[in-house]
Amino acid sequence: MANALDQARREIATRYDFKDLTIEIKLEKDQLIVSAPSDFKLTAVVDIIKSKLIRREVDLRILGEIKTEPASGGSVRATIPLVQGISQDIAKTINKLIRDTLPKIKSVIQGDTLRVSSKNKDELQTVMNLLRQAETVKIPLQFINYR
Question: pLDDT digit string (tens) for 78-87?
Answer without folding.
Answer: 999 988 878 8
